[in-house]
Amino acid sequence: MDINGLANPAVECVNPNIPVSIQASTGYTIGAGLKQVPSYAAAVSGFGQVQELSSSDLKQMDGLNIQGVMRKLYLRNPFNAVIRPNNQGGDLITIAGQIWLNVKVLEQWWNFTTAVIVLQEQPS
């Protein structure tokens, strides 16, 4: 049963889905000074639901020492935070010109993912 598909139309009445662009992490390359430089796949566009973190979400984030502007993102696609065996970092998400980093996947199902994203860059 697609619970997210059933709930999303009701949520959209209050908080509409917005266009997002996702660049999946592909690991890293070695740059100048032998520094690791993250690399990403070509961007894929879609729609997502951005919400504030709940108190239970904040409890899951406690102890990770992550600071900054955090939001919860619901997507109808799978995407990842850190996968150390594959040398992959977090995926990048662009929302309204702002770049966000996926730092933690809260839920991942066959048809949607819920993740915590942290603001990285704002348009100048």
Describe this structure in words.
- This protein is mainly beta and 124 residues long.
- The protein has one domain: Thrombin, subunit H, CATH 2.40.10.
- 14% of the residues lie in helices and 44% in strands.
- It has two helices and eight strands, in the order H-E-E-E-E-H-E-E-E-E.
- It has helices at 3-12, 55-61, and strands at 18-23, 25-30, 36-40, 44-51, 70-75, 92-95, 98-108, 113-121.
- It has a six-stranded antiparallel barrel.
- A hairpin with a 5-residue loop joins strand 2 and strand 3.
- The longest helix is centred in the N-terminal third of the chain and has 10 residues, at 3-12.
- The protein is globular.
- The mean pLDDT is 82.
Gross CATH architecture:
Beta Barrel
Instruction: Summarize the amount of helix as a percent range.
Output: 10-25%
- Give a short account of the largest sheet: 6 strands, antiparallel, barrel
Order of helices and strands: HEEEEHEEEE
- Indicate the multimeric state: single chain
Portion of residues in beta strands equals: 35-45%
Q: Which stretches of 5+ consecutive residues score pLDDT under 50?
A: none
Shape: globular
Distance between the termini: 43 Å
Class from secondary-structure proportions: mainly beta
Task: Report the strand count.
Answer: 8
The neighbouring-strand order within the major sheet is 1-4-5-8-7-6
